[in-house]
Hints:
Elements: H1 2-5, E1 15-16, E2 22-25, H2 50-77, E3 81-86, H3 93-104, E4 110-116, H4 121-127, E5 133-137, H5 146-156, E6 163-167, E7 184-190, H6 197-200, H7 202-207, E8 210-214, H8 226-236, E9 241-244, H9 253-287
Parallel strand pairs: 2-5, 3-6, 3-7, 4-5, 4-6, 7-8, 8-9
Antiparallel strand pairs: 1-2
Helix pairs in contact: 2-5
Amino acid sequence: xxxxxxxxxTHGHSHDHGHDHDHHHDHDHDHDHQHWxxxxxxxxxxxxxxxxxxxxxxxxxxxNDALAxxxxxxxxxxxxxxxxxxxxPGSGKxxxxxxxxxxxxxxxxxxxxxxxxxxxxxxxxxxxTGAPAVQVNTGKGCHLDAHMVGHALDRLGPPxxxxxxxxxxxxxxxxxxxxLGEDAKVVVLSVTEGEDKPLKYPDMFHAASxxxxxxxxxxxxxxxxVARCVGYARQVNPGIKVIELSAKTxxxxxxxxxxxxxxxxxxxxxxxxxxxxKLRAVRQSLED
Length: 288
């Protein structure tokens, strides 16, 4: 787990933010994700006590969570609905984003932060739609963290009263533990991956507010039990919402767009309420 190997700790790592599109976070260590049995910390690492593992995890996640709070406040002040899209590689996240941006064109501002270990291929695809995008390359890192997203926002700028999509590194394990300051995690599961993924990777499905079951146009060609998959997801997370769609054919796409629009409406209402509270406080201070 990244909270043990330390790749979530941005201190001491080289972060190159001086160029136009690509961030290179080349972490000079390898991830050892082999587990020899779980103890108090949920993982065993040779040479480290369970108490030390727990302390390392608290330190890393505590630092990340503090930065996530800053990101969340910044986005809330701009009235932004922020989504953290997570999945395994090949689930169709980028294609889903391209089609979503096209469908939302002219309705409200959209911006994208793209996370990959290397290349800017996905950000290039997003920018081709006309939407602003920043590529964050994590090097050996297997997830985005709040520090990386904060720096990306410095360059990108929050899409005022719009939607920010963060496409995380393809990985169903480590991104579950790292809050980026988003309003919701959206886990994208392709029907080509198998219906047992929610039980194999429970932390991710437990952390997600929405599961998108993608590529349903392929169902006639696969032995995939949709009801069983949804049941597994709700076994892990009873409150998870599920949308079945195909980014290719747009089947079920309206439900996804409506869910985004509802989230944005909530973000705008939250911003208005916050501004009103601040105004009341100013008036009160003047009266005093």
